[in-house]
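Attaching the record inline, Q. Sequence:
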Amino acid sequence: MPSLPASTLYLSLRVRLVHSNPSVAARIRCT
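Structure, as predicted:
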């Protein structure tokens, strides 16, 4: 696997979460 910065990895995980669960996405945006 390519070594990615922690921030990039977190962003990609968050994007995946947003696409799979809109309610969680709204909660993340609030924080």
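The two ends are 31 Å apart (CA to CA). The chain has a mean pLDDT of 75.

More tomorrow.
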